[in-house]
Write a structure and sequence with these properties.
The protein has 2 domains: 138 residues, Beta Barrel (Lyase, Ornithine Decarboxylase, Chain A, domain 1); 198 residues, TIM Barrel, CATH 3.20.20.10. Helix content is 28%, strand content 21%. Helix 9 links the parallel strand 8 and strand 9. The protein is elongated, with a radius of gyration of 24 Å.
């Protein structure tokens, strides 16, 4: 039968459900009671598009956002207006000061060096933006260590110049609810923050929210849970809805005989006759090469008409091949295979990565389709 080429496109589609995004925000808000629910929208809202995502979150009531850099903050400010607070997790840098002041961004101060820079820059400004203090409680990444924090606490003059309106830390192992470092970080954060003048406190990321009320303090900062990632294995996380799907259209099907190879380098050899579908999406679209089905490696899957279909052969830049031998109905060009969606965490595991990386590496050439509540 002739293919009706006008009926489909050989371009992958990234479908983002903004109504599910808002549902997730509201679900987390109910979970934490009176605590403020900020939103982490760094890396282009985890790859989903900062403009539609930020506006949807703003519409859901979000008024505090976190990004990594001043450039991200400036772009976000253009989409959410003057009212929300926007914090910069990487803190101030001398080259970014004009941008920080111009877009009214709040730097997260991570060290004495950053504190000195911000105090010096903010002092002559009439109404500089507020800032946050980040205390390292065991991750050994960003944040004041115990000696630096003691120095800051004793230097009251500098502290006042910083204009601090939030004190925060970051959990290293929150998805593992039984990990003793969670409680240890909680206790360290309580002790360390008590050295500073009383300010709103924030410790919990997405997974930290599900550790319980002691971790919520006055503000929580979810990221991946907003976008459909199951940051916790507990039953409460089941209320989080999937937000993003990558839809890869079939552009050809073919029969492959036993003993032949599939894909680059001939790394997949068929042990039986097989029917495969060639999809118009590859690692340039967000299906990582680690999803390749070769050798004894556990296969990564897509979903076709509710059935999981394994990737066979090496994922290439523009194309991915899946085994459709077990499909009961004929598969034609134009039909789509879904990746991620409700299988986001499972797909990430089978692709030897994490959901954060899958989302932030979604290709820019995908057609973007944003769904809103009907």
């Amino acid at each position: 039968m002739a293919i009706e080429f006008s009926k489909y496109s050989a371009r992958s589609t990234l479908r983002v459900d903004l109504s599910a995004l808002k549902h997730n925000y509201e679900t987390l808000k109910k979970k934490v009671g009176g605590a403020t629910v900020a939103a982490s929208v760094k890396a282009d809202a985890y790859g989903l598009g900062i403009k539609p995502v930020a506006r949807a979150l703003y519409g859901a009531g979000c008024r505090v956002f976190f990004v990594a850099t001043a450039g991200e903050g400036k772009i976000l400010r253009e989409h959410v207006g003057d009212t929300p607070s926007i914090y910069l997790l990487n803190g101030p840098a001398s080259r970014d000061l004009r941008l920080i002041f111009g877009a009214d961004l709040k730097p997260v101060i991570n060290s004495l060096e950053q504190a000195r820079l911000w105090a010096s820059a903010a002092d002559p400004v009439g109404s500089p933006p507020f800032s946050a203090i980040h205390i390292d409680t065991g991750m050994n990444r960003l944040g004041f260590d115990s000696d630096e924090l003691t120095s800051l606490a004793r230097n009251k003059k500098m502290f006042e110049k910083l204009g601090v309106d939030l004190v925060m830390s970051h959990l290293a192992c929150a998805p593992d609810t039984s990990n003793p470092l969670n409680k240890e970080q909680l206790n360290r954060f309580r002790r360390a923050s008590s050295q500073l003048p009383m300010k709103p406190l924030s410790l919990a990321n997405s997974a930290g929210i599900f550790l319980g009320k002691p971790y919520h303090f006055q503000m929580v900062r979810p990221g991946i849970a907003l976008y459909g990632g199951k940051s916790s294995s507990g039953p409460e996380a089941s209320a989080i809805r999937s937000v993003v799907s990558l839809l890869a259209p079939v552009i050809q099907t073919r029969n492959v005989k036993a003993g032949e190879t599939i894909g680059y380098d001939g790394l997949f050899k068929t042990e039986r006759d097989m029917k495969v579908a060639v999809l118009a999406a590859g690692y340039a679209d967000g299906i990582p090469i680690s999803a390749s089905g070769i050798g004894t490696k556990r296969a990564a899957y897509g979903t076709l008409y509710g059935k999981r279909v394994p990737i066979v052969g090496r994922v290439s830049m523009d194309l991915t091949i899946v085994d459709i031998s077990k499909m009961e109905k004929p598969i034609n060009a134009g039909e789509t295979v879904e990746f991620f969606g409700e299988h986001l965490e499972r797909d990430a595991s089978s692709m030897e990565t994490i959901s954060y990386e899958l989302l932030t590496r979604l290709g820019q050439r995908c057609r973007r389709e944003y769904l809103t509540a009907s």
